[in-house]
Amino acid sequence: MKAIRRFSVRPVLPEPLRPLNRLARNLRWSWHPETRELFESVDPEGWRESGGDPVRLLGAVPLSRLADLAEDRSFLRRLTAAADDLHDYLTGPRWYQGRVAAEDRAGPTPVEPVPTVSPGASVRSDAPVPSGAPVPSDEPVPSGVPVPSDASVPPGVPVPSDASVPSGPPVPSVPPAPSGLPAAIAYFSPEFGITAALPQYSGGLGILAGDHLKAASDLGVPLMGVGLLYRHGYFRQSLSRDGWQQEHYPVLDPDELPLTQLCEADGRPVRIPLTLPGGRPLHARVWQARVGRVPLLLLDSDVEENGHGEREVTDRLYGGGSEHRLLQEMLLGIGGVRALRAYCRLTGHPAPEVFHTNEGHAGFQGLERIRELIADGADFDAAHEAVRAGTVFTTHTPVPAGIDRFDRELVARHFGDDAELPGIEVERILALGMETYPDGEPNLFNMAVMGLRLAQRANGVSTLHGRVSREMFAGLWPGFDPEEVPITSVTNGVHAPTWTAPEVTRLGARQFGHLGDSELWELRRTLRKRLVAEVRQRLYASWRQRGAGTAELGWIDGVLDPDVLTIGFARRVPSYKRLTLMLRDQDRLMELLLHSERPVQIVVAGKAHPADDGGKRLVQELVRFADDPRVRHRLVFLPDYGMGMAQNLYPGCDVWLNNPLRPLEACGTSGMKAALNGCLNLSVLDGWWDEWYEPDFGWAIPTADGDAIGETRRDDLEAAALYDLLEQRVAPRFYDRGLDGLPSRWIAMVRRTLTTLGPKVLAGRMVREYVERLYAPAARSHRALNLEAAAELATWKARIRAAWPDVAVDHVEAHLTPPAPGGAAELGSTLSLRVRVRLGALDPADVEVQAVAGRVDDTDRITDATHVPLKPTAGPDLEGSRLYEAPLALNRTGPFGYTIRVLPTHPLLSHPAEPGLIAIPSETASEAAGVLMR
Question: How far is the C-alpha of 683 from the C-alpha of 687, rounded, in Å?
């Protein structure tokens, strides 16, 4: 019979075992091998049955076993050591505390702001650690020796004397920072992939968010995560007999998850209120997960005070229609800020100075912060400036279809006097998300556009994606070249302790650079052999779900071979990732799989969105090919791709395949996780691979991305290139053995991947970049733009915008020194510029007049530009024009050109393009300027 109500009964552990509760409730166990080994020793069979989930394990251990453990002195010693280790991890100083202490001793360390000229010239993601800076805790030293994930910073920074392992909400590990670094950072994301035991993720965005939190914890960065708790998580995937994707939504009980509820001092659960259209209330409770040192707050609308519809707001990740998604994003953004305020009030945690929105889903958090400031007496414009100063926005998609966009009237209905944010005019809210640029949809509210308008700093997630994002959103800054759009890039990274196989971690202590070829090759075979065993187990379970009987599944014992070149391909299944590109020429693929001397085998996994029938058809096509008796021992599709599967899949593959349509892959971190385990990459030059590809790390699949090539022809060409690489370079390199039976050239590539590429792809490097290049400048801007300063800046911008139509470049003169016959310039000569500029009601202090010079292409577009400021040399003439002058050195040969522009300038602007205003010469004004060095 089916139960009419479900609830959980938590175990009461014997007093000596109480520390197990604290260890289980802090998700650091998910990346700390010693703690996992401790839980496994509690009940090895129960550990396997629980899927490696300590909370489920403790709820199922027999009382007799607990009684035995409470008397087991050896186990209690291990338990004490693990609890002490967690205590030290939570309270000891780490990289961030070292930075704060260093700045307090020596004064603030200069930190690069968002580039003031060209985001395209951003700091490289593989930039070295600044001199004297401690190495991030998950980052291997150059020799390839991984530093333990809980390594502390060098001595010299005192440990807080009152530190203790918290039994309630985590004790803040960082006091309000007097340095240039923020006291706290709020990190908003619609999904978080921390561990399979907390299934609140669908794909790369959530896994990236989870790795961001873990790396921040390892580095001691005072991050606070904010998300939603989805009662059904993301769907579980299975296959029908004919290979069609099936979705299942298991119900998650928060009491069975590693969560605690945020409560008031009197024990009442905290309630976060929102107001829906017509004044209907929406209430949410707040669950806390502890990700090492980082608190993660998850809002849950499934509470008794809500009606049925409101309870379903947090039912599924990325489920429902437009209004359902809008309500989720309002709860995430507006409710998330309110949850943060409650958490800080109850725990004493420093209030966030910087708010980081991981994609546009959480964009409404900026509006809630504007509402707070308006309630304190600010007007909308001043509040907007103050909020922007402390906000960082990260865009993750180069695909416009991947951005949430809502009907204008739907958004308008959810705000205003009888809905949410009644103190803000609805038209001001709508203006933030309107696509007011060429080819924009005037009746759609764009969450990414709002995210950019509410953030003073923005970034893409790889160098190439930063460039694509600047082009994609250039319409928000009319008149500026894409290179100058204020969107920089921080290339994603992955959390090594989460994604590195234990065998790799252990051998790393012996330095991969000096490890013998035979030992390294044996390591790779061990990982491949373990993957083969797991694939067979998962494939058997999948076929049983598909209706196959035991008697017809004997062939699974021969699936895959631990000595055959193994290729992995696992990811979400939108069309641009091209799951079925490998099937373009099925005969040729069969030849590769069944080659008598150099066979390959392929493991494939991936989920299509439940509403994406096109993606489901791609899955079915792949599954039907994999079901063919001729190749089913060489190519397998594993359903229900998730973190648990991935942690064995990445290490067990020899080659990681990635073949998206360039440049539609923002970053693509799966190949990074594979590389950490010595897996070579075979990929289109897109995302991170475009940035860090070297022949020592793998192979680049040639692309046919010219405008004149159609989609079908492009797929044909790129599939053929993939087959050629596998046949002519990849397989021969793997099977080319020396007299010792080892593939020495392959092993050399593995070694180089581990020692040289591995340190670049770490989440520790990524988070350190966010701190230094985005969080610290945002904190300084937040402090500088108090309400008084924000009001002054808003007033100044309003004055500039009102007067800008009268700003013009009236006349440009250029004189060459020394004069050259026929006007041809020579290297080393100087061009004297005299420019007349009309400022209307503005003062010279309000603007900067610049010469923009550099090489020009065939269309006279300036490339590799330099910017030379011109100085005012004469006041306004009778027509109101002012004279500006400057010398321009001609220090390069070849086609050269220049232009003049006028930009607003103010000390509190983060970037010259921030106001989105520019004045350039008309054709008449530039007639005397001449054409140089053509």
Answer: 10
